[in-house]
Design brief:
11 strands, six-stranded antiparallel β-sheet, Arc Repressor Mutant, subunit A, Jelly Rolls, 43% helix, alpha+beta
Length: 329
């Protein structure tokens, strides 16, 4: 993965200021740096124009890419060169595109979206100028098996009805925040958003019974609630269950279906927020214990032990590894 894709900072590339003969190659290089190795072709490279905005949000990477008519391919050769094993979701914002993978084709108009797997060849066709939001994330973030994901690639989800409409609206809002420079690097909504994406796709597979889809929607709501209350040191599984009118046992089963207890999920999310804050140079003067306390860890020693167990370094050591030489930790 490139530095551009991993950066928690918002990165912007605009080909417009370049000479017309340089725009396509520069845009192509930016696209390859932001995503995975790709082959890109344009029928009229001399008149091409495009832009790219990227930001890392923990393990999720969000990009808005725009350009003139073009074709993007990921071949077996490029997969052999670099295969991070990620899933990409493309939401059409402007124009028309076709996503092709695994013998399927998804024709997308604005508001529609589809997923595709970087571990297998795929093609993207843009017949005219376009703008697309691309969200790239590990497959486990979808809360679906790899087999189920493989059955869903290049399948169009309409942004005009059902869960697809709700998901499209939230994705579009994230895209607008990215465009305006307002997406928080801490990614407070990414888990809940991907849970909703999971629910939208669960409706399309045999295993995605209405009951299972309802559980995924509830899980998305629960995770969104937890994400907005992580700063509360008194947040408990009991409180979360009561807020959603379910029993503690049912809530635990909801999380255990995806390989994690509710309390472990809360703890992991708090540690991830702390990790991102410790990377943030703007928070360098905030004491390590205050970082932990801000995200609900009331005991400094327990926070330090939990952080080291999760990331292999004590919080102060971790911050120092992201600090300029001689900076205070």
């Amino acid at each position: 993965m490139s530095e551009l894709a991993l950066s928690p900072r918002r990165e912007v590339f605009d080909a417009s200021p370049l000479a017309s003969t340089e725009r396509f190659d520069a845009w192509k290089d930016a696209v390859n740096a932001a995503f995975v190795p790709l082959s890109v072709a344009s029928a009229e490279p001399g008149s091409f124009n495009g832009s790219l905005i990227c930001q890392g949000m923990g393990t999720t990477h969000v990009s808005e890419v725009s350009g003139s008519a073009s074709q993007v391919r990921r071949t077996s050769r490029e997969i052999a060169d670099n295969d991070p094993g990620l899933i990409k979701l493309g939401l059409q914002l402007r124009g028309y595109s076709v996503v092709a993978q695994d013998g399927r084709e998804a024709a997308l108009t604005p508001g529609d979206f589809a997923i595709y797997d970087t571990s297998r060849p795929y093609d993207l066709y843009f017949d005219d100028s376009f703008r697309m939001l691309v969200v790239m994330f590990p497959p486990e973030a979808l809360q679906l098996s790899r087999r189920d994901i493989a059955s869903l690639t290049a399948s169009r989800v309409s942004g005009r009805q059902g869960l697809g409409s709700l998901t499209s609206t939230l994705l579009g809002a994230m895209g607008q925040q990215l465009h305006d420079g307002q997406v928080p690097a801490a990614a407070t909504v990414s888990d809940a958003l991907l849970s909703l994406v999971s629910a939208a796709f669960a409706e399309r597979i045999d295993l995605g019974s209405p009951l299972n889809s309802q559980r995924l929607v509830l899980l998305a709501r629960v995770q969104a609630y937890i994400s907005s209350h992580l700063c509360d040191p008194d947040l408990t599984v009991t409180e979360v269950a009561a807020a959603h009118h379910v029993s503690v046992r049912y809530l635990q089963k909801l999380f255990e279906e995806h390989g994690e207890t509710a309390s472990a999920w809360i703890r992991r999310k708090r540690l991830e927020k702390c990790r991102l804050d410790l990377q943030n140079p703007q928070l360098r003067d905030r004491p390590v214990s205050a970082v932990g306390m801000h995200w609900g860890f009331t005991d400094a020693s327990s926070f330090s032990r939990a952080f080291k167990s999760a990331f292999g370094q004590a919080p102060a050591e971790y911050r120092y590894s992201f600090s300029p030489a001689g900076a205070s930790v």
